Task: inverse folding
């Protein structure tokens, strides 16, 4: 085989994250101080909540610390929208409004790669709860290891997270046998390339430009054949 080890990004590569803004409005409208909570009004602040989480979750490396951060994040959004709800309600609504949706081919590709004897590792910018997300999806057993930014303390495109993945996979001296697969031209492609790895850019909307990518594809369907060489 051309590659015997595959590093995989998660969000935008294996799945997409969805926010249920309508559900947020339905659940929290009774707590709206001005009675004017609507999907249109809530959409921006709710999505900003997710943006803050993505930007700052690396700072929160224990479950208690992360829970406090998520609650504070939910309170910021509620205040911006004029919502006066108990903190436990805000936390429950925030967690309920997030869903993780696999792309149609993700599971079958993971199964095929495992059947081929390929070693698989997640390398993801995510909070410390990613292993739980993979377990809930029934995916954890596909992977030989999960390298998460909030656990490692380094985010793609930084070199340290890729070096940790190489160390964990036993490939520090065999980088040519590894390919990193991701959807972001900077965090995935440039970051992996700077660590001496071949890369596959997954551009599902065909709108990503990554001249540093070794390969590019619209989805994961061709990955097993690419790995075989």
Result:
């Amino acid at each position: 085989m051309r590659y015997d080890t595959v590093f995989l990004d998660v969000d935008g590569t294996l799945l997409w994250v969805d926010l249920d803004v309508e559900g947020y409005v339905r659940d929290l409208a009774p707590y709206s101080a001005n009675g004017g909570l609507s999907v249109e009004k809530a959409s921006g602040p709710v999505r900003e909540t997710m943006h803050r989480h993505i930007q700052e979750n690396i700072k929160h490396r224990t479950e208690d610390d992360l829970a406090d951060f998520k609650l504070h994040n939910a309170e910021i959004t509620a205040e911006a929208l004029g919502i006066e709800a108990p903190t436990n309600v805000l936390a429950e609504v925030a967690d309920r409004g997030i869903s993780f949706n696999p792309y149609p081919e993700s599971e079958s590709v993971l199964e095929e790669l495992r059947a081929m004897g390929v070693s698989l590792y997640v390398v993801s910018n995510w909070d410390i709860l990613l292993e739980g997300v993979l377990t809930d999806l029934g995916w954890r057993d596909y992977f030989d290891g999960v390298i998460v930014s909030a656990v490692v303390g380094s985010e793609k495109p930084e070199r340290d997270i890729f070096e940790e993945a190489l160390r964990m996979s036993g490939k520090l001296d065999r980088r040519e046998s590894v390919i990193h697969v991701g959807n972001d031209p900077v965090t995935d492609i440039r970051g992996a390339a700077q660590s001496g790895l071949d890369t596959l850019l997954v551009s599902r909307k065909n709108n990503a430009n990554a001249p540093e990518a070794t390969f590019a594809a619209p989805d994961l369907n061709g990955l097993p054949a690419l790995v075989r060489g």
The first strand starts at residue 5 and ends at 8. The beta strands are 5-8, 15-19, 98-102, 119-124, 145-148, 178-182, 198-202, 215-217. The chain has two domains: 5-15+102-228, 21-96. The chain is about 45% helix and 15% strand.
